[in-house]
Amino acid sequence: MQMRTGFLAAFAVAVARAAVHRVSVGKGRFTYTPDVVRAAKGDVLEFKFVGGVHDAVTGDFAHPCQPAAKKHGAFSSGVFRGKANTNEVFKVTVNSEDPMLVYCSVPGHCAEGMVMVINPSEDTSIDTVRAAARGKSARAPDGVFGGEMGAPSA
């Protein structure tokens, strides 16, 4: 019983330390707001689709606007028509502190610079990624994966 109580206490502390990073999708024409997030392992990203028709997909820094390999940590929200008063978000748990590219795979959006960077490095700054994405054709991954729809965190 003591071991179980200790485990539950440790789990509660870990969950309490996880930060929630809220990202508005489509608040401006082709934007993620904010477009740079610094997140720790275990933090949660909440994508709220507030305007336009958009998605959030993990991309490949070497090939902007193309989906990253489906691996632990990759995600695809599926396409949503944003509503300012929506009560649902796409939630993703961050499992690495490595840089991660997120782009909109709706045709033309990534090419217009609709990208964001989680945990940018000197080589993966938002300006570098946005410049590399300009004019590129986007490809959507197959299906929704790596996250879940739900109510925003309190």
UniProtKB/TrEMBL annotation:
The UniProt keywords, alphabetically, are: Signal
Task: Indicate the secretion signal residues.
Answer: 1-18
Stored InterPro entries: Cupredoxin (IPR008972), Ser-rich/MCO-related (IPR052953)
Q: What is the lineage of its organism?
A: Eukaryota, Fungi, Dikarya, Ascomycota, Pezizomycotina
PANTHER family xrefs: EXTRACELLULAR SERINE-RICH PROTEIN, SERINE-RICH PROTEIN, PUTATIVE-RELATED-RELATED
Do the record's keywords include Cytoplasm? Answer: no
Which Gene3D superfamilies does the record associate with it? Cupredoxins - blue copper proteins (2.60.40.420)
Q: What is this protein called?
A: Phytocyanin domain-containing protein
Supply the source organism for this entry.
Magnaporthiopsis poae (strain ATCC 64411 / 73-15) (Kentucky bluegrass fungus)
